[in-house]
Structure formats: C-alpha cells, structure tokens
Amino acid sequence: MIRLLTFLLLLAPSFQFTDTIIPTPTPWPERFHALLYMNVSSSVLQITNLWYDWPRGLNVNIMQKQLGVLLYDIEWNNGTSFYFTLGENGSCGIMDFGVGIPRPDFLDGANYLGTEITDGFLCNVWEKVDFIWYYEDVQTKRPVRWDFYDGISTHVMTFEVGAVLDDSIIQAPSYCFTQDTDTNSKFLGSSLPKKF
Ligand SMILES: *[C@@H]1O[C@H](CO)[C@@H](O)[C@H](O)[C@H]1NC(C)=O
Ligand SMILES: *[C@@H]1O[C@H](CO)[C@@H](O)[C@H](O)[C@H]1NC(C)=O
Ligand SMILES: *[C@@H]1O[C@H](CO)[C@@H](O)[C@H](O)[C@H]1NC(C)=O
Fold first, then answer.
1. Which residue minimizes the CA distance to atom 6 of ligand 1?
2. What's the pLDDT score for residue 178?
3. Closest by alpha carbon to 81, among 194, 180, 196, 157?
4. Are 44 and 66 in contact (CB under 8 A)?
5. Which residues line ligand 3 (CB under 6 A)?
6. In this predicted model, what pLDDT tens digit does every residue of 40-53 receive, in sequence order?
7. E strand or H helix at 167
8. pTM of this structure
9. In angstroms, rounded to a whole number, what is the distance separating the alpha carbons of residues 139 and 162?
10. d(Cα 17, Cα 2) in Å, to the nearest integer?
11. Angstrom distance (rounded) from CA 129 to CA 145
C-alpha cells in the first residue's frame, strides 16, 4: 500500500505537466565567444568580448568602455579574478570572489515569465532570484539579452559556439604578481553574475 502511494505520488506531477509545457532556458554551451553590447547606465556604454570556457574553468571579459582603456578580466573557477590593462601605464588588480564562474546550467530553476519581443527577436523570458532577467530566442534558443537587477542591460551581438580564446591572452601580465593585490572598484564591470 505504501509502495503504491509512493508510486502514485511519483507519477502525479508528470501527468500534470504533460498538457502545459513550461519552457526552460537552454544551458550555455561549454565553450563560446560572444560579442556583447552593454548599456551600463544611461551615460556609460561598453563593448565586451566574452569568452566562456567551462572545461578550463575560465571566463574572460575583455571590456571596452566608450573612449576608455581596454580592460581584461580573467575569471578562474577557483574564485580568483585578474583585472588588468596593458601598455605603458598598465595596471592590475586581483580579486578573490570566493565563488566560481557560472555553471552552464546556472539558469536552472528560473521562473518563466512568458514571451516578449526584444531587440527585434521573439524571446522566452525568465527571471532568477530577482537578480537576472534572461531573454532567449524562441526559434534558435540563442541568448539575445540579459538584464541585471542593478539596471545593466547586456545585448548579444554575436554568439560563436565552440570558440576558444588564445592562450597568450589568458596569462596575466607580470605586474599582477609583483604588486599588492589591492582591489580597485574601477576594475569591476563583468558581464556575468558572480552569484551562481
Ligand atoms: C541606455 O539605457 C538608458 C536607461 O535605460 C537609456 O535611457 C538609454 O537610451 C540607453 N542607451 C542606449 C544607447 O541604448
Ligand atoms: C586560481 O587559478 C589561477 C589560474 O590557475 C591561479 O593563477 C590563481 O593563483 C588561483 N587562485 C587560488 C586562490 O588558488
Ligand atoms: C602614462 O602616464 C603618463 C603620466 O601620467 C602620461 O604622461 C602618459 O601619457 C600615459 N601614457 C599613456 C599611453 O596613457
């Protein structure tokens, strides 16, 4: 009898969901390169080259603010991030976030909000923990846009599955290892959440 009850309880939810299929976000590919257009605030625009490499435990943001200095952000899955600029006045900051890079399935458990046209694409939209709003193309399943709670809006201009960043870019410059690891807020501005 108990077994039968368990059996019925296990079956019940699957019956319920057969008539209403709620879309779930497509997990991120294990490796990709995306060119991102970010509207950081009404007066700050940024282009970011995002290189996501889950097998290597690596997430790289190469960030260009309008008429600013090119900023590299190399995030490792052990929680360490290197922020640096190159050139004559190159500088570096190292931060330990205590959390790794987002997993490919970091959107698991997000709440489905329905469809919406954004940037001209019909998208499924999800929200997770009042932190991220995520727009995925209904047809191609590619990400189109994501917004953070703080108003930063990211728009996906290109999305190359399988692309891998050259090793030479990943290596932090020597001055990262010779100075104090002071943190500097100007170095923040990653395109991805640290939260998941
Ligand atoms: C950026 O976002 C702000 C606030 O939402 C908006 O006023 C502004 O027009 C946007 N700028 C661009 C270039 O998208
Ligand atoms: C995390 O990994 C990177 C790359 O291997 C390394 O440079 C860094 O020192 C590591 N951080 C810690 C806290 O072990
Ligand atoms: C580096 O800093 C010096 C001193 O502030 C400045 O004169 C020089 O123009 C800077 N160089 C670059 C490439 O920004």
1. 42
2. 83
3. 194
4. yes
5. 87-89
6. 998 999 999 999 99
7. helix 167-170
8. 0.82
9. 20
10. 24
11. 17
76 CB near ligand 2 (under 6 Å): yes
Q: CA 84 to CA 94: how far, in whole Å? A: 9
Structure tokens at 181: 């690891």
On whether the CB atoms of residues 52 and 32 are closer than 8 A, the answer is yes
For residue range 147-194, list pLDDT tens digits in order: 999 999 999 999 999 999 999 899 999 999 985 544 444 454 555 555
Of the CA atoms within 13 Å of residue 65, those in its CB half-sphere come to 14
Which tokens belong to 13? 């939810």
The ligand placed nearest to the CA atom of residue 79 is: 2
Q: Which helix (H) or strand (E) holds 11?
A: helix 2-17
> Ligand 2 in contact with 171 (CB < 6 A)?
no
Question: Quick one: tokens of 51?
Answer: 């290189």
